[in-house]
Write a structure and sequence with these properties.
- It contains 10 helices and 8 strands.
- The chain is of the alpha/beta class and about 240 residues long.
Length: about 240
């Protein structure tokens, strides 16, 4: 499934705070989001800010066991984990993604710390008819970004800040516009610290096709009305 443009996505960590609440959140968010990112709980969520990090530590189940609690697919769903945990077993992750109805597996640390595994990742994705997705930052070399296009990814994800939910004095518009030029017509998603309609509008206007919200959702996951109202308010920032 392709990502709707312009689109609004939601990130939640699998089985946080427990399996029952997570399943309710998936159902609710599938009705108000254009796509989902489902975090694979890990003991080392190194690129996540303190709020999302806590969801990893407090999830009822860990690793792929947390992913397997349901089937996805009402909207495009991407599993998001750290390749550090699966360097010797990429096939298990992609097989699991295929079994639960996910469209892709996104590893934020792939290009930064395990670039030598890029081809292994591509092959593992193709084996199960999944499309690759890539996480980059404004510091990712332009030549590498250009190389990624040939793999025809479902999307390229631009991290706006150094970690989720943490705001730093970066020139967001400039960064998004520069990356937009590099990725041609590949879907460009931006995330980290998206929490207001104004931020959504800013990022989309700069050239992103979609945005993802995560940290700002955490304290609303147990209240479906608050969750829906918040996502609806963010949608107000889309064209």
């Amino acid at each position: 499934m392709d990502i709707r443009k312009p689109g609004l996505g939601a990130y939640i960590t699998a089985t946080y705070p427990n399996k029952e609440s997570f399943l309710k959140a998936v159902k609710c968010l599938s009705g108000v989001s254009d796509f989902l990112e489902i975090g694979i709980p890990t003991q080392n969520p190194k690129y996540d800010g303190p709020v999302i990090r806590k969801t990893h530590f407090d999830s009822e189940l860990k690793g792929l066991d947390a992913i397997r609690v349901t089937k996805y697919g009402d909207v495009p769903t991407i599993l998001m984990g750290y390749i550090d945990d699966y360097v010797n077993n990429l096939g298990l992750v992609t097989e699991t993604a295929s079994e639960v109805g996910a469209s892709s597996v996104l590893f934020p640390d792939l290009l930064f710390e395990h670039l030598d595994m890029l081809e292994n990742y591509i092959n593992a994705m193709r084996e199960y008819s999944l499309r690759p997705t890539f996480f980059i930052s404004s510091n990712t070399p332009y030549t590498l970004v250009g190389t990624l296009i040939k793999y025809e990814p479902l999307f390229i994800y631009l991290g706006l800040y150094a970690a989720t939910g943490i705001k730093l004095p970066l020139y967001i518009e400039r960064n998004v516009r520069e990356v937009r030029k590099l990725v041609d017509n590949i879907t460009l998603i931006a995330g980290f610290a998206i929490n207001t309609p104004e931020m959504v509008k800013l990022v989309i206007s700069a050239g992103a096709d979609a945005v993802v919200v995560g940290t700002a959702l955490v304290n609303k996951l147990n209240d479906q009305r608050a969750c829906v109202e918040f996502m609806t308010s963010l949608r107000g920032g889309l064209p």
